[in-house]
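Sequence in, structure out. Go.
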Amino acid sequence: AARAKHARYLADLLASPRAEPRARAAELLRHYADQLPLVWPALVAALAGSDERAARAVLSLFRHLAPVAGAVEPDLLELFGDPCPIRAARAAVALWRLGRFAAIVPHIRRELLGAPDDSRGWDLLTALANRVGHAHGVLHAIEGALAGAPDDTRARLWALLFPPETGTEAAISACVDAAAAPGARVKWLPLFRAAGDDPEAGLLALALMCAYGSEGTGPVKINLIKHQRAVAFHYLAESKLIVERAMERLTAGASATERRARVREFCGNPERPPEALLALLTSEVNWYRWAGLELLDAWGAPELAADLIAERVWDRCPRVRARALLLT
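Output:
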């Protein structure tokens, strides 16, 4: 009874006039999977709203609505018919999570292959491609929906669904060479320049230390301290000691026990992986998604985010897919 009450309270917050409570409620509802069938109208309403952050967080919850799929599907089909391609794309991802994607396949084919003007169909697919970071299995559903399409259509679809690395991703890739000697695998100063002011940069660096060792991190010690404080809200002196321990002990040959201790300490030693770490798994930057998986592995309890890890098995980025498979 208490869990149901809490779930209803959080669902009500999805309609808050303030953005932060909406987003926070969407994130917390992930811990009430068993109660979500009771509050599904609020989830659909969030998809129809203008808050993209809350809608993205809510999308991952539709996998838990199988018991009420018959009731949810008509509302999602109505939302799929919305003239706004963003809202239609949200509905398409939600239907895929619900196991009802087949219901919109004829509509997608008609928009792209049977309409005199296919612009709305491509607008919809573009909006879908921008959201597959939160449901990568939908990539295969889209490809299946366009089976038998002309070659030029499929080539355009392939380019849309599997785009080249963004500027940030390519810049980070240029800083990492897994085949190099231990002290030269990561170019640490260029790495922080590539990541710019991204708050995820410190966790990415920590993940790279776990994967390739901390050799050569001396010049970025101040960067690491700044990011550690942002994650765990420690005093400067305490952050300095934590970062120095990580730099000293996360060598290329560090044990799993050592990696676990250093990652948990960097995050402030909470009982569960912090939201900042879990948020990496749904980042639009593939290196941050990879970092989230690397850090969860080091954390030592990947089952705490099993659903999020399973999504990465379908990731567009081969690096992320390969890392996710090691955790499943």
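Check: The chain has a mean pLDDT of 90. The CA atoms of residues 306 and 328 lie 8 Å apart.
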